[in-house]
Design goal:
This protein has 687 residues and is α/β, with parallel strands linked by helices. Helices cover 39% and strands 22% of the residues. It is globular, with a radius of gyration of 28 Å. This is Polyphosphate kinase.
Amino acid sequence: MKTLSRDLSWLRFNARVLQEAQSDTVPLLERLKFLAIFSSNLDEFFKVRVATLRRLVKLKKKTRAKLGESPKRLLKEVLAEVARQQEEFGQTFRQQLLPALNEQHIHLLSEAELTHKQREWTAQYFRDKVLNLLSPVVLDETLHHLFLKDQAVYLTFFLTKPKAQKPKLEAERVMVMELPTKRHGGRFVRLPDEGEERYVLFLDDVIRVGAAELFPAYKQVAVNAIKLSRDAELDIEEEVSGDLMEKIRSSLAKRATGFPARLLYDPEMPKEVLRAIKQKTGITDEELVEGSRYHNFRDFFGFPSFDEPAFHYPPRPALAHPTLPRTGSLLAAIGQRDHLLHLPYQSFDYVTRLLREAATDARVSSISITLYRVASKSAVVKNLIKAAKHGKQVTVVMELKARFDEESNLFWADKLKRAGAHVIFTPPELKVHSKLLLIARREVDETTRQYAYFSTGNFNESTADLYTDHGLFTANEELTKEAAAVFGYLRDQTVVPELKQLLVAPFGLRPGLNALIDYEIKQAKKGKQAYIILKVNAVEDEGMICKLYDASRAGVRVELIVRGIGRLVPGEPGLSDNIHQRGIVDRFLEHSRVYVFAHGGAEQVYVSSADWMTRNLDRRVEVAFPILDESLRAEVRQLLDFQRQDNVKARDFGNTFVPAAEGEKPLQAQEATYKWLKGLKRRQVKT
C-alpha cells in the first residue's frame, strides 16, 4: 500500500508554515511570528520524533525489522530534509525579512553593525541592565559534567591572550553561560531611535559588546551560541503496541532520561570550544547540527511591535453568539435548544460562564469534565474549584500524559483535590484526549436534567484565541445520556458502554468509521451518490488509509482537508483517483475535526476530538459527536465549504497553493468564516 512517511509528511506541514513567513501578503511582524512557529515546531520534532527514531535505530536488528520500515534510512532522509528546510529558513530571514524590516525603517543590528554612538549606549546598557544577570561557568578539570537545559540558549566564551599584567592566567579558557532571556525580560533590546530609523539588538549581541568588561584580564573573547534539544521521552506506546511493545520496552529499559536529541551550534565557534562542550556533556557528533549565530527563533514571538497596526493582522474581536445570551442563564438557553460555538471567531467566555453559573447554581448537583491541556491561569479550573467548595460533586478526568503539560496538569490536579474534587488519573496505557463537560441539575419539577458541552478543542482559554474549534452545547437526552456513559467508562474502564449516537475510541470509533465508509462504498457500487469529506489534523492510520483507498476504487468521492500529517497519497491511478487533498495554514491554527458522509442523501456530520491516527483510534479516549440539529449541521457544512473553496491559503498535497479558477474571486476561508458568522445573527433575526 502506497503511503508517505509520517515524519516526512510532518516536515511538509512545517514547510507550509515557512511559506507563510515568506508570503508578502502576510503582515510583516506576523511573518516573523511564523518563523518563530516554524522554529518551535522543529524543536518539538527533534525532541519527540527524531529522538524516537534514534532510539529505534539502537534496537536489535530483528526487532527493528518488525517495525515495517528502516528507522536508520528514515532518520537519514528526515535529517536531510531538515537541513534543506533550515537552509531555506535562513535565506528567508536574511534575504527576505531583514530587507523588508529595513524598508520599514526597522533595523535588527548585529554587534559589528553598531555605530560608535550605539556601541557606547549598548555598553552602558550592559553595565546597568545585564551584567548582574550573568554567571559564566569555567569548563576545566574541576567540572566533571556540564548539564545543559532543554531548549535554552547558552553563550560560550573562548578567552585567549591574557593581558600583560596577568601573566599567570591560562593562555586559553572556555566558559559557558545560559542566556538570561527570562530574567532580562526578553530576547531583544531597543536602541534609541534616530529620526524615523528604529534599531533593535539581540540580547546576545549586548553581551558580545560587554564581553571585554566581563573578562577584563583577557585581550580576546570569542562569543558563540549553542542550544540543546533533549529527548522528550515519548512513550513508544504512541507508536506500537502488543508483543512488539514488550520487546521494545526490554530493549530500551536502560535508556538515559532526557538523552540529547540535537545540539545546535554556531559554525563560527572555535573547534576548541566545541571539543570542550562535547567532552563535558557527553554529546557525540551524531547529535551535532550546524546552526547559525542565533538560536531559539521562537523568541521572535517577543519582537518589539512598534505600535504599528499595519505590521500585524487586523483586529478580529470575538463575535457575540447569535443564540446564546450575553447575560442571564446559559443553562436555561441550552435547555431550550442546541448551540454551536465556533472558536476563536466566537468567545470561549461562554464556556467559562457556563462553569461559573453551574458552580453557584443551587440546583446543580454535579459537574464532570475531562482536562487535557489547561491555561496557566485557568479560569476553567478555578470555577471547578469554586463548584467543589460550593458542595457540588466535581469529577475531573485529568490527563497526566499530555506531552509538555504534565507539570501544569499535576499542579492543577493537586489544587482540585485540595478543594474536594474527585480527580481521576487514567492508566498508563490509556490517554484521554476527548473534551467533555457534563452538568447534572435538579429542575423545578424535581427531575434531574443533564447539560453537556462537546468540543474539538481543549478547555484552555489561551489557545481558544488561536485555534479554530467547534463546541456543542446541548441538553439532548440521547447525547447527554451517552456522555454520562463515557464518564462511567472513564471511572473504571471495565464496562464498555453501548452507544448509538457517539463514536468513542478506543472501542467504537474505528468500527463506526469503517461502517460509515462501507456504506458509502455500497452506495457507489449501486451507482448512487457517495462522498466523504474529512477535515482533520492528521491522516496517519494505515487501516483507515486502506479503507479510503477502497472507497476511491469503488467510486466514492473523497475530499481531505489535512492541516498536518497526511500519509495518504491522493491522485494515484487505480488507487486514489477519486481522492483530493488540501491543507490550510493561516492566521489561526486549524484544529477542528469534521467527518461528513453522504449516507444515501441523509448526510451525516460528526465533529470530533480525534485525528485519523492509530493512537487516536486505538489507544486514546476520543469522542466523535453527531450534529443532530439540522440548522447547526448546515452551519458546519457552510464553514467546511469555505475551506473547500479557499483559493488563497489552501495548498495541495505537494504544497503548491491552490489557484483561483478563471473568473473566480479570491476566497480566504478564515476571513470568509469571520464575515459569515458576523452576519449570522442578523440573518436569523430577519427569518
